[in-house]
Amino acid sequence: MSYVALYRRWRPETFADLVGQEHISRTLARAVTTGQTSHAYLFTGPRGTGKTSTAKILARALNCAEGPTLTPCGVCDSCRSIRDGSSMDVFEIDAASNRGIDEIRDLRESVKFAPTAGHYKIYIIDEVHMLTTEAFNALLKTLEEPPPQVLFILATTEPHKVPATIQSRCQRYDFHRITVTEIRDRLIYVCRESGITADAEALGIIAVQADGGMRDALSILDQCMALAEGALTAERVQEALGLVGCAWIEKMALQIAECSAAALIEQLGELLQNGRDLKQILTELMQYFRSLMIAGVGGATGAAELTEEQAAHLRETAAQFTQDAIMGILRRLNETIQEIRFSPQPRIAVEAMLIGLCRPSENGDAAVMAAAPASNPVDTARIARLEEDVRRLTVQLAAADTVKTRAVSTGGGAMAAAPAAPSAAQPAQKSTAPKRLARSGAADAPATGVPRQLDGALWKKFEARLKERNRLASSLLSGADYEGATETHFFIRPATDMARDYIMKRHRAVFEEVMTELVGRPLLVVCTGGEEEAVPPPTNAVKAPEYPASVAQLLEIAGEGARVEEVAASAKHPAPTPQTSAPPKPAPAAVEEEASYEVYEPTADEEAEMFDYDELPPDENT
């Protein structure tokens, strides 16, 4: 006789053999006992949890020669034919390969005939969600009002794909994932009855890898037994399944808690040398930290993934991490698993991630740090006092900045109003003061080393407002970069020298006006990137010139506003000659805007008086 796989050999034969589905077996057993079976059932749940096996158990219980009964004899023709799949009254249909409307039409024709040997004609449709919409519609009427001795059992792993019209005509039973403890106990029973020697730890690993499915657990046990020589150990199971192993993963977690990057990288290299896959390593590490997270919040980790012994050990390990640290590690592991799918060097990405987990202070991720020890009460009080001092100083600095801003605004208004009110005591002659003063003072020269704040949103608002205010000035920002702002200046790096000159010499006022409106305090523009920063030079104190005693006496007699100019004598007229009358020369034209002062041309009478001439100088026209 050929070898029969374990999951087929140990398929449940009665309701008592079902593992982890007591809520279903108890309900169906009572329905069979009382004769209140429905005409249609819908079994849903994950793979390998016993949906099809329960359907066959129900079919044997109803069609047994001694039935309906909860304990089918297993020896009558009906029981044997149902077991080997040759029964003429129980039809097992795979909806994945018979999903069309033609198959459902054939089914509708066959339900009209009475059962041949058993009490009921039973149709087990597996993976029913694979039927087409037309097939579901063709099944509706038959499913709602089948013949008296016909029973439908629909099984699916995806109940959301079954139309609501079908579900409303069935009694629905949801199969649960089987817990790790229940799977392990069942494996121990199977190994004992089959004469298989296996360690409890090895069976526990198989139970975890089965992911809640009994069929998967028996298949994994069958696979591991083919590799094992003698007793089945945990090492053999890990080797057969390509697992890293709980011991290795726990060791890596502790190294992360201790921030031991060198040991962690060394262990990763050893695992890779042993043939372990990078993705498998990260996956098991993520599952371990997920268990730590649940254990840290007091969750029931033993329900579907861990035994009670493993859960108790996890709680001790979880105490070495904070919840924020565990969630940060899970986030980094998940990102790295996604990254290595497309990385040309996945090992480098994993090593960089592991080193980053061991050095949270360098990568700025405070959530990766392990739990810090309890602080000293003296240190806590001292830190509280320092924080209070910092808060008080911050308030004082903010108040000082407010006062300074108001003072600058008031001073700017006074300076703007001063030229509009010339002194009444000034004579008609032109003032010797320059027409336009260069901006100067401490506010014009940006302090070196002052940190700049780079606000991209402010720069976009500035560009939009400047474009509305002056399109020509806005065009100078083409290709320019914003380099941040301080309390008194904002910095722009124009794309060309010509744009820099135009900004500083022609459009500086509109730049500063727009920026001042946006930030609410006076800001001066500074263009960077040239040979010299385009910052107005500070005005130095003007040193009073030294004149001879006679000239100084004349300046004192002339009064405030008088000025001395040196005039070279004309070569054509070396000596002055008397002149009876000379019309006063017209006032000189206004000097250019860029000149720093105006040139004053004195009259002939003034020249004679200043140089002590007895006679007027000769007129060149006489």
Task: Describe the protein's architecture and organization.
The chain is 48% helix and 7% strand. It is α/β, with parallel strands linked by helices. Strand 2 (90-94), helix 5 and strand 3 (121-126) form a beta-alpha-beta unit. The termini are far apart. Mean pLDDT is 77; it is low at 363-375, 411-443, 537-542 and 569-599.
Fraction of residues in H or I helices: 40-55%
Q: What order do the strands of the largest sheet run in, or round the barrel if closed?
A: 2-3-4-1-5
**Beta fraction:** 5-15%
Mean pLDDT equals 77
**Number of helical runs?**
25
- In this structure, how is the largest beta sheet organized? 5 strands, parallel
Question: Helix and strand layout, with pairings?
Answer:
Layout: H1 6-9, H2 22-34, E1 40-44, H3 51-63, H4 77-84, E2 90-94, H5 101-110, E3 121-126, H6 133-144, E4 150-156, H7 164-167, E5 171-174, H8 180-194, H9 200-209, H10 214-227, H11 234-241, H12 246-257, H13 261-273, H14 278-296, H15 308-318, H16 323-339, H17 346-358, H18 360-363, H19 377-417, H20 456-469, H21 471-475, E6 481-485, E7 489-493, H22 497-505, H23 508-519, E8 524-527, H24 549-558, H25 604-610
Parallel strand pairs: 1-4, 1-5, 2-3, 3-4, 7-8
Antiparallel strand pairs: 6-7
In short, what is this structure?
This protein has 622 residues and is α/β, with parallel strands linked by helices. The protein is built from 25 helices and eight strands.
Structural key phrases:
single chain; 622 residues; alpha/beta; 5-stranded parallel beta sheet; 3-stranded mixed beta sheet; 8 strands; 48% helix; 7% strand; elongated
